[in-house]
Design brief:
about 15% strand, about 70 residues
């Protein structure tokens, strides 16, 4: 069974979607934890493009649209 996305993870996904190529340091300062980022990467909702910078994937965009 798939793990449900938490409110914090959804907020992180929204931040990454709003600010493409956001640095990992900025996400950590905003309250992101390593398990939250790992969850988003493991489920292919975000991808690390340049080292330490994240972008939302197509699947991540679909999750955002469904969450509205």
């Amino acid at each position: 069974m798939a793990e449900p996305i938490t409110a914090r993870q959804l907020t992180l996904l929204q931040v990454v979607a709003k600010h493409p190529d956001v640095a990992r340091e900025h996400l950590v300062k905003a309250g992101a934890s390593d398990p939250d980022l790992a969850y988003l990467e493991r489920h292919d909702l975000i991808r690390e493009r340049a080292i330490g910078h994240y972008r939302v994937t197509h699947l991540g965009q679909a999750v955002l649209k469904r969450s509205l």
